[in-house]
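Need DUF1152 domain-containing protein's 3D structure for a figure. Predict it.
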Amino acid sequence: MLLVALIYIGFKTYHYLTIQRMSFTLNRIPLFDELKNSQNILLAGAGGGFDIFSGVPLFLALQNQGKKVHLANLSFAALGETRATKVCRACWRVDSSEPVATTEPAYFPEKDLSLWYKKTFGENLDVYAFSRTGAVYLTQAYAHLIELLNIDTVVLVDGGTDSLMLGLEPSLGSPMEDSASIAAVYAQPKVAKYLTCLGFGVDHFHGISHYHFLENVAELSKDGGFLGVLSLVPQMEEVAHFLDLIAFSNAQTARPSIVANSIGSALQGHFGDYHVMERTKKSELFINPLMYQYWSFKLDVLAPKIRHLEYIKNTKTFVGLMKGINEFIDSIERKPKKGIPL
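Structure prediction for DUF1152 domain-containing protein:
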């Protein structure tokens, strides 16, 4: 009887604490509730490459709410060889000036995005591009941009879900860029900070176990760091623009995005082992409707749980970043890989 009583008291205590911290209702979207008072938002691709494309539907929706939204991305382009304007040590401003074929790289997602926006809306769009560097200089670049643009809120966007790997999972995917971005934004003292992921299932291509992604979502939910799931649907105007951006970029780039095209294929109603590009045809894909759902989190709750951040937060180069991740991996025993039992 004592054990039953203790279990009952524990459940009632948990229920009471949960009620006390509730601030959302079913008819509103928690992420947008969190951003209600934000006026100057920096929406930034966390993992580099085409990650910022996954934030475009959110960018357009926030713009329609009358908010000022700036875009940034961790870039894989050789920024020093482009016409982009250097803002600080690890940050460049990319605009919609027509590229010069002899100088602009064939792979330049930030330029693709800026050119697409000018073509679609007739206005210039600056996209800030961070160079591939260590966490120290990326932290400084974020601080500079936050001050320059008077930012009050930073939303990191991950195309995929490997940014939610906490360190002990059987695979971390490609953790260097995501970890550096999370460490850099977590270190900013005067802004609200969030992470949103679009592309559930995409990272199976990179060895991620989505059993462990869901396990980590559950842990964040328990600690008040999970802001729920928001689904895109094909009928949305933001989705039409997103699909147009993907098609525009596919025609521009030498290396189209696997993540963006997988999400786009799902939004177009394709399912299973569907391939829209030659790059993926030697592997098996699982295109599905879960790919076009945003999973959102409070970064201040997530970041302290990521064990490898301590190993990379003081790195100054990308090589140092890789060494830090490898040092962490060598120091731990990973969890066994599990599949979702469905």
